[in-house]
Amino acid sequence: MDPELMKTVMTKHTTYKKNFKVTNHIVQIIVTGLLGLEGKLWSKSRTTLNPVFQLEKLKKMIPAIQVSCDEILSEWKNLALPKDDGSCVLDVFPYLESLTSKVVSRTLFATDYSKDKNLYVILKEMAYLANQTTRMADLPGAKYLPTETNRRAKQIMSEVRKRLTALIKERAKEISSGQNVEENFFHVLLNSELAEAHGIKNMNDLFGQVKLFYFAGYESTANLLVWTMILLGIHQDWQERARQEAFQVFGDCKPDYEGLSQLKVIPMILNEVLRLYPPVVELSRLVEEETKLGEYTIPADTLLMLPIVILHRDPEYWGEDANEFKPDRFAEGVLKATNGRPAFFPFGWGPRVCIGQNYSLMEAKLVLSNILRTFSFELSPTYTHAPYVVFTVQPQHGAPLILRRLK
Description:
With about 400 residues, the protein is mainly alpha-helical. Helix content is about 55%, strand content about 10%.
């Protein structure tokens, strides 16, 4: 497992292509939009959507992220009120999923989360259904079998398509009439050459893009936040260091972009969490023609698996403490952490690197800065450590923590 070769595979995306020969029919339904495109259409889509995640656009999203964070923290405060010590035991994972879902609705789609809430719930259910069908996915005609999973998957997709198609048409009408002038994801997508080229009539392209960002936009950040809280619940020294930094930079004020860019300890912690629990444990690429990769000759129609999580824990690149939580390994940046070798790919690499990585990291820094200045936390005795892969790495049994309000 040579990280240089992995980097080459991710960089040369026209030679090593996304694997669309997926046998799991539910995965095929979920993997749409940018994830499901190749060649010129992918390039066009990527170019169209890149401006949504540029720095100036990200800065404008901060108030919406803060509002979403305030709402969740207010719920936690109310739950902690009855106790004399201001504490409560809480599975924080569903709250963090709710928080990041609200952020996606507000920042990317300018929609009301209360109307979108059930959409996130059924998309999450779809991911679990995909996981359940993995064992029988290779059976010929598996998607036509009259199983309860297949029936439910069809019901969900029918509901998702109905909701998102109505939303797309509604937003397109608002934009064309000048009612909605806010330049968010929807605005960019519906006014793009991509939409003009395919026409609003071709709802499949737009539906695929919107569905992808509803699904991927909340899940990766929620998982990053929950693993961060779990690990800081264990490592109280790092929790305190992060809290001191948050107070030092922001005091009692709401975080702004300038302050977020000054943080040092919190980004180190987030990088270490991404190393240990990357959103995606592996990537795959398909070689359609015989290709030379380093000293290896790769036959045509070979599927290459890139084991991200194994590389992230390889002692050869990270030292004998590779399985330990040590954020200070990132004190001088990512390259220094691995002695200049590329061994850190939490969001992929190259042209197809995750388009929303800066969006996710900014949101995580802001949310964590707020949580740390409001609560201290530790693992509940009921916590069971069980990383579980659905589409991303999640705590299978949730994240019950003991939260205590700071005085």
